[in-house]
């Protein structure tokens, strides 16, 4: 049996323990974060910033960054289509897979507020990509379906969005992609019920988080 990896890992542990920035925190979690930062070859000033920040702050920031990178690519590939944003595509794709949704159902499936969602639906209807019909039971609601024009456009843009998806995952291996998918789905499973319950539930979660941070 070869022990090359073990010796390399031991050397990394020694370097970690000698880092003055650790301030005595020699936990496995601290070591794992330190090792990841070391492996991605971040600039020195960025690495020092990461050492000073708690993991949840770093994760939140990079999630926002990743969203912005994705939207940058999406804007580029949708530039010559009637779709102006990723949300336009997402609503159209969701409705194509689930025809006959009400406006509220479509909005909730895309994690939006009512005002924003209604504006997206209005755009799709005005461009002839989505049509609405009277609800047979609830006269206050409208049932939405994708038009033939919308299906044709969706078929073209799906190819473009697959290209974006391939770019967004970058150089992650298949195993890393599966791991990230599992973690993001776990976070989605946690947050979606809070979103469904509205502002009171959100306030409660924020209070609980604040109370947890203030614990000694």
TrEMBL record:
Molecular function in Gene Ontology: DNA-binding transcription factor activity
Organism listed in the record: Fibrisoma montanum
Lineage: Bacteria, Pseudomonadati, Bacteroidota, Cytophagia, Cytophagales
GO biological process: response to stress
Transmembrane segments: none
Domain HTH marR-type intervals: 59-189
Name listed for the protein in its UniProt record: HTH marR-type domain-containing protein
Top-rank taxon, per record: Bacteria
């Amino acid at each position: 049996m070869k022990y090359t990896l073990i010796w390399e890992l031991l050397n990394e542990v020694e370097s970690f323990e000698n880092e003055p920035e650790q301030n005595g925190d020699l936990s496995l979690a601290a070591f794992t974060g330190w090792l990841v930062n070391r492996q991605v070859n971040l600039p020195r000033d960025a690495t020092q910033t990461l050492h000073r920040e708690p993991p949840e702050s770093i994760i939140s920031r990079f999630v926002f960054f990743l969203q912005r990178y994705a939207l940058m690519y999406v804007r580029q590939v949708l530039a010559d289509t009637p779709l102006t944003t990723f949300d336009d595509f997402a609503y159209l794709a969701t409705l194509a897979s689930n025809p006959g949704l009400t406006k509220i159902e479509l909005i909730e499936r895309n994690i939006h507020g009512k005002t924003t969602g209604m504006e997206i639906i209005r755009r799709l209807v005005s461009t002839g990509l989505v049509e609405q019909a009277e609800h047979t039971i609830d006269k206050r609601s409208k049932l939405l379906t994708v038009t033939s024009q919308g299906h044709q456009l969706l078929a073209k843009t799906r190819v473009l969005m697959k290209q974006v998806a391939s770019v967004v995952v970058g150089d992650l291996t298949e195993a890393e992609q599966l791991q990230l998918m599992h973690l993001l789905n776990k976070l989605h499973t946690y947050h979606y019920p809070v979103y469904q319950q509205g502002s009171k539930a959100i306030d409660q979660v924020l209070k609980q988080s604040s109370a947890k941070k203030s614990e000694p």
